[in-house]
Amino acid sequence: MLELQNKVLERIAKGEPLAATLEALCLLVEIRLPGVKCSVLRVENGRLHPLAAPSLPHSYSQALDNLEVGPAAGSCGTAAFYGVPVIVTDIATDGRWAAYRDLALPLGLLACWSTPVISAGRVIATFALYFQECRRPDDRDKEIIETCTHLCAIAIERDERVRERERLTYTDALTGEANRARFNEVLEELQNANRAFGLLLADIDNLKLVNDTFGHGAGDALIRTIARRIASVVPPERTFRLGGDEFAVILDGGGMEELAACGDAILRAVKRPAQCDKHVVFPSMTAGGAVAGDGDPRQNADVALYHGKSRHRGQFTAYYPGMGTALTRRFRAIRDVGIALAERRIEAHYQPIVRLDTGEVVGFEALCRMRTSAGETVAAAHFHEAMLDGEIALQLTERMLDMVTSDMRRWLDLGLPLQHVGINLSAADFHTGNIRAKLDEHLIGKGVPLDHVILEVTESVYLGPRDHTVGDEIRALREQGLRVALDDFGTGYASLTHLLTVPVDIIKIDKSFVDRLISEEPGAAIVEGLIGIAHRLGIKVVAEGIETEEQASHLLAMGCILGQGFVYSRAVGFDAATELLRTRGQKPDDAGENNRPPLRHDRLSRAL
Ligand code: C2E
Ligand code: CA
Ligand code: CA
Fold it and tell me: Which percentage of the chain shows pLDDT scores above 90?
């Protein structure tokens, strides 16, 4: 017996699979008790499941699988039910075998003694010996049974501990859903098996805001609620919490249509108000999805999610090939500009704004330029995607304000006829940037009078999200004495009605209109009408992107006095800009003379 015991314990210690260890145990017993056949059944939730029975036919074990324990459920089912050994010496006549004897007798099994394996007061298995003769146990048999049930208990307990540890390594503690480790495994299995599947990645919108406002207890409650809601609309064991606010769902089979439907169902389920730690929160998630087949689905779903977060919050975005290229470009631009900002390789250049009739320089537009490490100068158009990133946009405005106000102070100190410089702002400046404080700091700090500054706001920012932030800020800035220009006018949907509710001082007609001035009748009519209306509203007009003298004279004939474009000058550095002011700057003296007939529009340019 000692030898048997050592052999089995050695297998347990080596961590061999439970079934293999128990089969070895059975075989070792069968050598010692000729004619016996052993079986070990696991007991789980009141049902039997075969663990090992190497010498019994497979069909017999199968027949016992999932059998409910009970007062007359053969030897094992009865032993498990009462938690005591059941010695059946004659299966043919014993009432406890009434329902099962037709399974055993044809195999020549005549007696069966079963002993419960007990752990912490709970029956976890049964250990049974079958005989091809009617017999009852003697002392030696009893000793073998006792040793074996003990070994079974050790082996099964250890297996349960290992399984529990595995369960924990694969379970997210907060939600009880599968975690990232499990997600990685499932994904790998599906990919290795070349199976069709859809992958959805989803982020909770504004979780940080919930944490910051209501505390982490509320944030955790929100995560738990969302996990439950996702799991309620997804097949079992297909919801994963990857960490933080990130969830994943894997759908076996199916294409993008199924995935999108699942995505919509999840987002709908998530959207209901949720009670989170005494606060009612209105949760929302953004999801992106990709199906296996075209590249790495995880990366593609990630790309789709990222896209969704910047454009379609609260919705499902499906990946399409090529989606990544646009993103990569943007990522690269963000990274490049970030580094350039840190290394102070962002510079301010100045494009003159010119009186179309006299060619005098009345002001500048400040445009940022990136100097590459190789020494080249790159125009903003090549990296403007980086400015969609809020953090970069704020840093850029700050840097430009710093440089531009310093340059302006120098021009004023040189006594040059500087009228105004336009500074481009981004959406982030209005929403998170505290732009007024920043302007105060730089303008007052460097002693630049406010009326020398024009803030350029693009149509897309001006129309921005449907809140009042931008409009309120623009009103406040104008009340302080700063002027605001509506940039790229005509590219978006800014209408004259908008101009009445949130007035601006200047409209900059986009280059696309200037381009069509000569070739297209409607384009010209629109510009002419716009100039007329703007004048009546007291709004000045500047034409952008003038590239030919012909365009300039057309604009002039329509009553547009001011413009900028390559035909006059590209954006130039500080020294060249200084030279422009010196040689072509509109002299203050002209201002006096400028009270002349409106045809020459001098007052207009002067007023600007
Ligand atoms: P924008 O504000 O409309 O600036 C005018 C752009 O048109 C400038 O390009 C300028 O160089 C270009 N341009 C001027 N005249 C002509 C012309 O005759 N022909 C052509 N083809 N182009 C002309 P840039 O400097 O590459 O800037 C592109 C955009 O990047 C700007 O459009 C603006 O939206 C943004 N940007 C530039 N500097 C800044 C900045 O300091 N801050 C922010 N937030 N955005 C900036
Ligand atoms: Ca501009
Ligand atoms: Ca523009």
Answer: 75
CATH 3.20.20.450 spans which residues of the chain? 347-591
218 lines ligand 1 (CB under 6 A): no
Q: What is residue 193's three-state secondary structure?
A: coil
Q: Is the CB of 381 under 6 A from ligand 1?
A: yes
For residue range 14-38, what is the model confidence (pLDDT) as tens digits?
A: 999 999 999 999 999 999 998 999 9
Residue 161: CB atoms within 10 Å: 10
Q: Which residues contact 463 (CB under 8 A, 6 or more apart)?
A: 492, 493, 494, 498
For the chain, where do the domains classified as CATH 3.30.450.40 start and end? Answer: 2-169
> Which tokens belong to 586?
């509109």
Q: Note the CATH number of domain 347-591.
A: 3.20.20.450
DSSP element (H, E) containing 406: helix 390-413
Rounded CA separation 299/79 (Å): 54
How far apart (Å, rounded) are the C-alpha atoms in residues 478 and 562? Answer: 21
pLDDT for residue 596 is more than 60: no
370: Cβ below 6 Å to ligand 1?
no
Asked if CATH classification 3.30.70.270 holds for the domain at 180-321, the reply, yes or no, is yes
Nearest to 456, CA basis, from 432, 422, 480: 422
User: Ligand 3 mean position to 583 CA, how many Å?
Assistant: 26
387 lines ligand 1 (CB under 6 A): yes
Probe target for ligand 1 pocket from 346, 367, 517, with the most ligand atoms within 8 Å of CB: 367
The region, left, alpha or beta by phi > 0 then psi within -120 to 50, assigned to residue 137 is beta
| Tens-place pLDDT, residues 488-507 | 887 766 666 778 788 899 99
Beta carbon of 488 within 6 Å of any ligand 1 atom:
yes
What pLDDT, on a 0 to 100 scale, did the predictor assign at position 587? 80
The H-or-E segment that residue 182 falls in is helix 180-192
Which class in CATH covers the domain with range 2-169?
A: alpha beta
In which element (H, E) is residue 214 found?
helix 207-214
User: Model confidence over 288-327: pLDDT tens digits?
Assistant: 999 998 789 999 999 999 888 877 888 999 999 888 887 7
What is the distance in A from the centroid of ligand 2 to the CA of 485?
8
Closest ligand 1 atom, residue 566 Cα: 18
